[in-house]
Amino acid sequence: FGGERMDSWMQKLGFEEGESLTHPWLNRAVEKSQEKVETRNYDIRKNLLKFDNVMNDQRKAIYEQRLDVMTEENLDEIITDMREHLVEDLISRYIPPKSYPEDWDTDGLSTETKRLFTQDFGLNQWAEEEGIDSETFEDRVVEAADNFMAKRSADIGPEIMRQLERTVLLQSIDSHWKEHLAQLDHLRQVIQLRAYGQRNPLDEYKMEAFSMFENMLSNTRDNVALLLAHVEIRREEP
After folding, report:
1. pLDDT tens digit string along 61-76?
2. 134 exposed, middle or buried (CB, 10 Å; 0-12, 13-18, 19+)?
3. How many CB atoms lie within 10 A of CB 211?
4. pTM of whole model > 0.85?
């Protein structure tokens, strides 16, 4: 922080290598340099704290969700809510808002419902019905998915299904959260490069971290629905 002026001062004042520096000018220069160092380090710590706050907000949301899964006796509401959000995501992806049935990608939606729920519930036939709209279509998909999972629960056994739901939920939340933390750490390492493009790295980090968090929640819902719809129970004979 001293710069070239410090070198020129030392030469003019006749200091030699290894000599004690006691001149008042140098003392003031060192004090100013120390102030600059401390100010710079403070700014770095304050900036890092702002980045940490973004992660902490997401951590609080995940830990609250995880605590609910661990403490709630009945997880029906949580599972149903996740399934409805999943169906909403699928509908928004394959059915454009305020569009006509002929513009819907029912083949793509059918492929996804088969992947998630092992069947497509007759989506193509629904889309051909006269007067069908996207809201009615979505309600039918939600109802069909709920009925499918209710039948699976009855076949497997309600008690066993409750245990499965808790286990699958916790495992899915934990695995996706760990992946998300690794991605956030990588983003944090490269986000400073955005400053070269005249963009605020912290603002860019907040936006991308929020988008990644939403994707993580979506992937968690997808994984939970997939596992609960496909898991098979093997009972050993006594």
Report:
1. 999 999 999 998 888 8
2. middle
3. 10
4. no
